[in-house]
Every structure is written in structure tokens, then in C-alpha cells.
Amino acid sequence: MYLNRVLAISLMLLAGAANADWQQPQLSHNLMAVKKIVAGPDFELLNLDEEKVKLSDFRGKVVLLNFWATWCPPCVREMPSMERLQQKVNSEKFKVLAVNQMEDFDQVFAFTGQLPVDPTFEILFDTTSRVSQSYVVRGLPTTYLLDKKGNIRYRAVGGREFDHPEVIKTINRLIAE
């Protein structure tokens, strides 16, 4: 009985701490240039509408390729900045692709319904982690910036503020190439 009360009080304190108005550290905006430029492996995945989407369909555009999951706090935190980025950069020359890791359509659809704005970028499903393995993703979130030819030019591991002016400047440089 005593142990149950201690457990219940502990859970209430943890829940209160999780909801407390504490300041989270700011997300970084740094993208690391890759040392060796290589082609990003092509793939075909289903989107939220259960339509097939291929990475190669976006050749000629700079692509922000983000690997994420709904259970990943930094993934959730960076999601609104990806939407703002998609809105700020010319969509004729740039595309955000968010590749969800091993979650089902219903779970991700419910998650997107809780976001302040519906994402206008593509959300794709890597249900077997085959694509994340081909990109050597070792932690979430992991993001790659691909040039118009589909080459990996930048990489970021961990949450980012993607609509930061420095990130936009980097993307616009790649668009201008």
C-alpha cells in the first residue's frame, strides 16, 4: 500500500514536471558539410495518401531529407520549422521530405493533426528502416541536404531550427548552383 502511494505521488510529480513551463534549450541551426560528396541512395516510399513517392522524382530541386519519429522529442520540436522552411523557400526549386521511421499511417496522421499547421511537405513511411539503413541513420532526427543532382552535401544529427537564416542561405546557395 505504501509503495503504491509513493509510486502514485512520483508519477504525479513527473507528470507535473513534464508539463511545467521550463525553458528547453534552443535548437541548433548548424549543418555539417560532408567531407565526401556522394549520391543519395534513391528510394520509393508511400506518403500519407498511400501514394508512391521516389526521391529521384525531385531531381532538379534541393531536398531536405529528414528522418524522424513521433516519439522523438527533438523530431517533434523541429517539425514546425520544417513547415516554415517549406513555406519560405521557392517550392519550384526546393522540397522537404520527412521520412517517418517504423510507425503506422494512423499514428502519424493523428500526430500531424496535433500540429499547429498541417504540413505541406511530404511525409513518407520507411516501415522497414531500409531507407534509413541506406543513409546510415544512427539516431533521430537525422537530416541530409541534397543538391539538385541528388548528391548529399550537408548532414545534421539532432534537432534543428530549419528556418534559421543561415540554413536558408545554405539552401539558396545550392539552388543557385
Total beta-strand segments:
8
Q: What is the tally of helical segments?
A: 5
Low-confidence stretches: 1-22
Distance between the first and last residues' Cα: 68 Å
CATH fold assignment:
Glutaredoxin
Q: What is the average per-residue confidence, as pLDDT, rounded to a whole number?
A: 88
* Count of the domains: 1
SS-based structural class?
A: alpha+beta
N-to-C order of helices and strands = HEEEEHEHEHEEH
CATH class: Alpha Beta
Describe this structure in words.
The chain has five helices and eight strands. It has 177 residues and is an alpha+beta fold. The protein has one domain (27-176): 3-Layer(aba) Sandwich (Glutaredoxin), CATH 3.40.30. The chain has an eight-stranded mixed β-sheet. α2 links the parallel β4 and β5. The protein is globular and about 40 Å long. The N and C termini lie far apart (68 Å).
Q: What's the topology here?
A:
Layout: H1 2-19, E1 32-39, E2 44-47, E3 52-54, E4 62-68, H2 73-88, E5 94-101, H3 105-113, E6 122-126, H4 130-134, E7 142-146, E8 151-157, H5 165-176
Parallel strand pairs: 4-5, 5-6
Antiparallel strand pairs: 1-8, 2-3, 2-6, 4-7, 7-8
